[in-house]
Design brief:
With 323 residues, the protein is mainly α. The protein is 73% helix and 4% strand. It has a two-stranded antiparallel ribbon. A two-stranded antiparallel ribbon has the order 2-3. Helix 2 packs antiparallel against helix 3, helix 7 packs parallel to helix 11 and helix 8 runs parallel beside helix 10. The protein is globular.
């Protein structure tokens, strides 16, 4: 089986299965290694300089490991046992995609809101966002969910597909490791300001192009779904690009424009308030239905990008693992 077939099966498996808790998952194992590595490194840290060095060592080590191990395993398998190599590569690629899981987790929040169970909605939202959720009202819960769908479309689908098409499962896993490092240690609080600085910078670099791709995909998907394509494009590139964190703001702005709502505002992280830029025009008031619409945009936009990547990869015709 060629790589195109492997990629299609992996993508379909993600749409069908999501991320079951009972299934062994490479990304969860990577997270386990990051946690253990951090604990071990911090034992010898006594200064900010050592924190930066220790965090950089952990980051570079995990990134190198996440590429070299699957690359070597797949190369050996494709040379000596292609029948075993194909399911292994399918599984590794499948583990890098998060389409169905993102939808499921967002629907948990939506269903809690529809049942008027605000405490449950806050709890479900806390599983998918980094901000504090304990005091959020209904509209802020909706905002947090829609923003997460927009941003996670990039790091959960667009970027993994992009890197998978460039370098197969090894490069897709490398990206997911970068993303996991950022989510675990790439914070700007006192504990991680120095330790996670390298991880945060590499994550910003890795997401630079995928985030900007979303600024074109969401407007196209909006047009397909009958939402505001023009507004999506204008706000993505007029507001989202001109913020301190365009990697997050571009997809959120594109989503806000497509749904004609306003995203951004005051968030709280570990009881510390952070004002984020307002994105969108607030032509429509936030409602639960916007969670459903954001998921539809996520599905259509990511599927469109997947088909584009398949076409380019087919025309390109280069195989990175088996060569």
């Amino acid at each position: 089986m060629n790589f195109i077939g492997i990629l299609i099966i992996a993508y379909l498996l993600d749409l069908l299965l999501g991320d079951p808790d009972w299934m062994p998952h490479p990304i969860r194992f990577i997270g386990f290694l990051i946690e253990k590595g951090e604990n071990a490194i911090r034992k010898g840290i006594s200064s900010e300089k050592l924190e930066l060095l220790g965090g950089t060592f952990l980051t570079i080590g995990m990134i190198s490991l996440s590429f070299l191990v699957p690359w070597m395993v797949l190369k050996i398998l494709f040379q000596h046992s292609p029948a075993c190599a194909v399911p292994v590569e399918i599984f590794l690629l499948y583990a890098c995609f998060s389409t169905k899981e993102l939808a499921i987790e967002s629907f948990w929040v939506r269903d809690a809101l529809k049942s008027n169970d605000i405490p449950l909605a806050r709890k479900k939202l806390s599983w998918i966002v980094g901000r504090d959720t304990k005091n959020l009202d209904e509209k802020e819960i909706i905002r947090g969910t829609v923003e997460t769908v927009a941003e996670s479309t990039v790091d959960g689908i667009i970027a993994p597909v992009f890197y998978a098409c460039l370098g197969g499962a090894p490069l897709a896993l490398t990206y997911k490791t970068i993303n996991t490092l950022d989510s675990m240690i790439g914070h700007k609080n006192k504990k991680y300001f120095y330790f996670g600085k390298t991880a945060a910078k590499i994550d910003t670099l890795a997401n630079w192009l995928p985030a900007r791709i979303s600024g074109f995909l969401f407007p196209i998907a909006a047009g397909i779904l009958g939402y505001s394509s023009k507004s999506s494009y204008q706000i993505a590139w007029g507001q989202g690009l001109n913020t301190p964190v365009p990697n997050a703001a571009i997809p959120e702005a594109a989503m806000a424009g497509a749904l004609q709502i306003q995203l951004g505002g005051l968030n709280t992280y570990e009881n510390v308030p952070l004002q984020t830029p307002y994105l969108g025009s607030a032509e429509k008031e936030l409602s639960v239905e916007h969670i459903d619409k954001s998921i539809k945009l996520m599905f259509v936009g990511s599927l469109l990008f997947f088909l584009i990547c398949l076409t380019i990869r087919t025309l390109w015709g280069i195989t990175f693992i088996r060569g």
